[in-house]
Design goal:
With 277 residues, the protein is mostly helical. The chain is built from 13 helices and no strands. Belongs to the binding-protein-dependent transport system permease family. It is a multi-pass membrane protein. Its main location: membrane.
Length: 277
């Protein structure tokens, strides 16, 4: 291939990547710009406008806004459900891939996980509400943590299964010969080797929990409402506070962005380690 053809190919590849980045980033840029506009400027579609922080101040400090409480609720529920999912998924992945289960047991479990993951969460919300209400778990952190953990566990089980399966069996056998019990093997051998997988799975689980809406809307009230529920309340029957909704949406992106920046190295390693031998 000539130098000219190589340069053209490189230019075309970069142009396509830039176009894809613009397509992906445009909605975020539009929402961010809308957060700094007044409601009138937004509805009039003004491209040039005087930025204002009024929307953020109203979301964070207004006496009628519960956004700070909603933000705290989402953090508590997201972190707790993620920790629970990682704990259960790691144990289940180790059991399915390293214990002597018949093949049909492992395939049945993973197949059921896929089927359950395909079920829309909204179809489960009313059933959970009916089960949780008699035992006092409706409008509670614990009820929503269990619901979010149930929703995200199938995805985490599949991901952790890949990482646990890639752990060399010789290390596990050596630990068993040395007299290590299962808890010691998990703590000293498995967990240190699957840290990238734990990071990738944990961040995806947290983001899915943070963004979950229909189940949170059904199982929470004002005291326990999460960020997606709070954003949805900006759309009322007679009016929609677009600017306030945009400001709340921008603030809701911060935890995910911070997590991705801090742990991007582990995410890349975790998502690619199972694909390369």
């Amino acid at each position: 291939m000539s130098v000219t053809a190589t340069r053209q190919s490189t230019f075309l590849r970069h142009a396509l990547l830039i176009l894809a980045a613009i397509i992906v980033l445009f909605p975020f840029l539009w929402i961010t710009a809308a957060a700094f506009k007044t409601q009138i400027a937004l509805l009039m579609g003004r491209v040039l406008f005087a930025p204002t922080l009024h929307n953020f101040a109203d979301v964070l400090f207004s006496s009628t806004s519960d956004y700070v409480r909603n933000f705290t609720n989402s953090l508590i529920i997201g972190l707790a459900s993620t920790a629970l999912v990682l704990f259960v998924a790691t144990l289940a992945a180790f059991s399915l891939n390293r214990m002597k289960w018949p093949n049909w047991v492992m395939h049945s479990m993973l197949g059921w996980a896929v089927i359950f993951h395909m079920v829309p969460p909204i179809t489960l919300a009313s059933a959970w509400y009916s089960m949780f209400r008699p035992i006092g778990l409706d409008n509670s952190y614990l009820g929503l943590i269990l619901a979010h953990a149930t929703l995200n566990l199938p995805m985490a089980l599949w991901m952790m299964g890949v990482f646990v399966r890639d752990v060399p069996g010789e290390l596990i056998e050596a630990a068993r010969i040395a007299g290590a019990e299962i808890p010691t093997i998990l703590a000293r051998v498995i967990v240190p080797l699957v840290r990238p997988g734990l990071a990738a799975t944990g961040i995806l689980t947290f983001i899915f929990s943070w963004n979950e809406f229909p189940v949170s809307l059904t199982l929470t009230q004002r005291q326990t409402a999460t960020v997606p529920v709070a954003i949805g309340k900006y759309a009322q029957e007679n009016t929609i506070a677009f600017s306030g909704m945009a400001a709340a949406s921008v603030l809701s992106m911060l935890p995910a962005v911070i997590l991705l920046i801090i742990a991007q190295r582990f995410i890349v390693r975790g998502l690619t380690s199972g694909a390369v031998k």
